[in-house]
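Page 37, top half.
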Amino acid sequence: MKKILKKLMDEYKFCCIHADADDTVKFSYGKVIGLDDYFAALSMVSPDGVYDGVQLLLIDDIVYAERSVGYDGKMAKLMKSRGYVHAAPTVEADDILQWGLEYAMKNRKIVSVEFENSKIIDVSGFVEEIDGEMCRLSTVDEYGEAEGVSYFEKCRITNLCIDTEDEQRLLRLVDEELRSMG
C-alpha cells in the first residue's frame, strides 16, 4: 500500500482512501501530503467541497485507494462552487505522527485521537506536550468546555484528525482563554 500512496502523493491528485475494513464503502477524500513507514497524511475535502483538515491514518489500516472519474468530477464542481482553497500545511518530515502532533501544538489546533483502532474518537483537545513517546492533551468536551488532561503513548494512536470540520466546530466553541493557553 505504501508504494501506491507514494505514487498518489507524487502525482498530487485527489483520491479516495478506504480505511474501514468493516465498512469499505466509507472513505476519506483528498490528497496524500505526507508518508512515512507507518502513517499517511491526507489533506481532506468534505463531501460539500470545502477544506476538511488533515487526517493521519495508519498505512496498515488502509484497505484500498482509488481514483474515480465520476466522483472526482462531482467533487471538482462542488469545490469550485464553494471556492475551495487548499489550506493544508506542507509536510516535510520523516515521522508523520510526530509532525502532526507538533503542528497541532504549535498552531493551537484541536486534534481528535483514536486509540487502538477503537473506531471512535477517544479524546479531543489541544496537544500541550510531547515528551519522547508520551503526549499530554488538554481535553475539551463536545461543548468546547475544558474537560481535563489525557496522557498517552504515541504508539497507541491509530488515527489523528487535525482541523477537520469537527475540530473547527469545537474550536469555535472553546472560549478565548482556553484557546490561547499553552
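Page 37, bottom half:
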Amino acid sequence: MKDRDLSRLLEDMVARILAEQSHEQSVRKLYVVFDEQWHHENYALANQLTTCDFTQVHAIVPKNGDPDMERRVKEIHPFLMQYPYGEEPAFTEHDCIVLPYIGRNDVIHIALGYSQSDLSEVVKKAFTAGASIYVLPTSIEPLSGKEPGPYQQMVQGYYQKIFELGIRYIDHIRHMN
C-alpha cells in the first residue's frame, strides 16, 4: 500500500469518526421528569408518548423512589433509561425536558431562581445547558378558585414568570420543536 493510499484511508476513517460523533452529540433526547409523588396527569403524558418521534426517551425519577413509583413509570412507557434525581446525564441544547406535573411550590422556586427541590434543580440544569423545557395542560397544579383574588393573581404571576424564563406551554408533546 502506498503512502498516499494509506493517508487517504486514514483521512476517511477520521472523517467518519468525526461525523458519527457530531451526529451523536446532536441527537435530540427527551427527558420526562417525574415529580416525587405519582400524579394521574402522568397517564395523559403516557398516551402522548406513544405518538412521540424521539428515538431516545429517558425518565428522571425520585432518588429514593418507592417500588410502586418505579413500577408505574415502567408501565406508562418503555423508557430507554431511568435516572434518579442528581444522577441524570448532562443535558445538551438539543435535549427536550417534559414536566408531566409541576407543583405550585416548584413553579414559585423556578420563577424566583431557587433550587429548593430536586425538580427545580433539574430545571436549573436544563436552563444552564440550553435545553428546551415543556409543560402540558395537565402539568400545572390548578387553583381551587376559593383562594383570595390577590393570592390567585400572585400565583398566576409566577406561572407567567416561568413562561417568560423559557418554559414552553404546549397542548401536545408532538408540538415540541
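Margin note: Helices lie at 3-26, 41-49, 67-76, 104-112, 118-129, 149-164.
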